[in-house]
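Worked example

This section walks through a single chain of length 357. The input is the sequence exactly as stored; nothing has been trimmed or padded.
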Amino acid sequence: MQSKFQANCHPMLLGSLPLEDHSTAADLVFEHTPAIPSWVQLPVRRQELMVPQFMPGLPGLKTEEYKMFIDTSASDYDDQLLVFYEEYMAVMEGTANLNQTRFVLDDATATGFGTLLERLNKSHRTPVALKGQVTGPVTFCTGVQDENKNAIFYNDQLRDAAVKLLALKAAWQARMLSAYACPVIIFCDEPALAGYATSEFISISRDDIMACLDEVISAIHSEGGLAGVHVCANTDWSLVLESAMDIVNFDAYSYFDRFILYPDQIKNFVDSGKILAWGIVPTGNVEDIEKESGESLLGQWIDKARVIEELGIARSTIFAQSLITPSCGAGSLPLEPANKVLRLTREISDQLRLTYA
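Given that input, the structure is written out below as tokens.
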């Protein structure tokens, strides 16, 4: 982990906001999370939905009536697959410039990344860190389908190609953001892991999941970045706490009681110098957002941090190795509650930093 990064309860946002304009989204990011700016996904734009956003570059990619899928029956599919692996190997062997490959984020589907770079180029302030993201490999490979509507996770060759695509798209972001002389965080958004060990994913093994995550993490680390993971709701938290992830983001508002069921893994994770990103600001429904205040959520964080402290972790360590985030992206919320989520995230962080910094 990059030792120069100090989390210190700084506020950080998760990917999406309910806006149509990237400039306006960037204004909100730099207003509420100036220490750790991130690029924003705007899901009102169909091409910026979580899975489609990272599909460009996949071999066999086809679009019909706004639906994207992998057509393995196409006459040139095998040729496309071969070209994909040749390009991948050229990047890995250093004979191809990563910036001139399919592994660069497509400006048409990831406009927010370019907007972030534009803002950073105009800024005179060096951030504490910068954040990018990709859709996690499990979520991606269970969300992308072939022509027969089968998830590509169950096609070993396609899954391998997809994970490599995501890994290099993550690495490219880390490389681009590292130009700004501060630590870089690249998150894997993995809502599908909430289904791990359920009947929906009964045939997906822990080893398969770990292998997918490890490949993306390794790519991020190869560019000097920190790797984070966000899981909505609940999961088998040992899965991510025992991975090579540097940062684990969990829904501390609604699922802390499930998260704390893994005390040994949490303690080992924190003792190793890694970071807990507390999703303490609710995004699940408007009613929760309306009823909570900065004061009420701060009290909840303090109470829950005390439970972590009882595992034998000093309060000062918890502060130093924590980030404050919403519980999930705000892209599906109405604009007013989404704005409140951002305000509360910064307000809680500000209060904690006044108290413990």
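What to look for: The longest strand covers residues 275-281.
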